[in-house]
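Example 3.2
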Amino acid sequence: MRGILATCAVIAVLKAGSSLAAAPVGEGKVYSGSDGEQVAIIPLTPEDSKKAILLVQGTDSELDGKVLPHDIEKSGQDTRYVTQWHGRRYATVYLSVSAGGDRRRYYLHIPGRRDSTLVSFDDTRSKALKPQDVYALHQKQKSEGSITKWMAFDRKGEEAQVETSLASSVKSLNAACGSQTVAKVDWKSISDEQIKQYSISSFCETPLDSLRRLCGESAEAKKVVQAQAKEVVCRFGGALAVERTASGLTWTTSTEASNQEEFATKYFKENLESTRGNGEKLAERMRLEKIRVCTDGQGHYVVIRPDEKQSVQLDYGDGKRFVKVAEPPWVISGYHFLEPRFYNKSMNHSFRGLDMGLYSEVELDEEKNTCAVRCGDRSIPFSRVDAEQAEKMVAEATFEPNPQKYVPYALLRDQSGRYYLVEKGFLPEDRSYRVSIGPKGNLKQQQMKDVVSDSKGEIFSTKKGDLRLLVDREAPSSWIEKKKKIELRAVPIEENLPLIYNELGVYTGARLGTPCDDQ
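Structure, written as tokens:
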């Protein structure tokens, strides 16, 4: 508001002291924003010169009160009002017109603001606007040399602005990390053209932002920044690089490189050493920090480890030996695990194609510092193991693959109630099979091997070939005993997992490598 009043006062003085001779100006318009921003757009004559002067007010920026010359640039139906500001091409106002031409929006670009400001036509102020007076102010600023100064490139001023912006980022970094980091810019590595074309502060703030975010994730990262990033130097080069120095870090940025913060974060994690030393990197220490261990107090432990694929990976064991809990489908979190022995009827039976009644889970509440294992509809309370003890346990324990060797592949049944269960190797790449046959509760493994396995199905046979099981994907499956053929009904696997694991007898006493094995 002070800027608007001051500009109005200057215009009033000019009006009083001028003869108001005809000025080369057309009818002007004023556009206003929601927070008092104003921009007066006054075209210069002749119209085909495509020139205009713009007066910005009420933005609390260094642009307020300055009447700068602009070129009017058309691109299709859109229009930009472009000037020179501190040696840079600067589009002060942008008019965006929709494809049908029914929507016109004006955007004011204000120095120091990340986003442009939407402004709309102000009829009252437009009627009160005196284009000749604004032109007179423009001429005054021009004769005083002010416009030339504002439009000229000022390297020292640019450097000062970057240093100020960088100081703000350093302050945020130090607040987050408890550090006393100092940031410097190697100005000799940066050309005038780079300063004009790019936001130097954005490039140089990248490693600072990366370190700040790491501190937000990890207590160890705070210690590492305090010890190893006492000084961060930013320079421009041909490719991204980070160099460790006696005083801290040197960050080499490049205007051609993408994903710069990702690069910086990866470097810091993989190259900065943890405070424990012995060659341990920050990434490993951060990984250990995120590990959680829970116990039921009966010698059973669940390890919850960070995992890129499904947020967490579970391991289950006795504190000295752990086995990997099989990963669930990607559509649910790693806290879940397939547990058909404990079916939960109250769960959603069609969640993204999954019957959630088949899945149990580890329930971890970081805020309440609680842990539990839900097996079906029963929740077993576990308690959190102290972080230091958990880290020691994980470091000393052995971790092994999931113990399962086979999983159900096909289930068939004849009219007498005899079941035929075909299992496939547990790992996706395992092409081994086994066949069990018998009544519910007493299926027996058969000495059969697969002689055919293709897109149409599988054929299993005894060594002599007198017994054969045909699993067909298109026609009815069958059991052939010598010359006698029995047609079999396919029983859907997913719908009958509780039956397979609890009633057929094949998995009686088997350990599936889940936290429910001992429940």
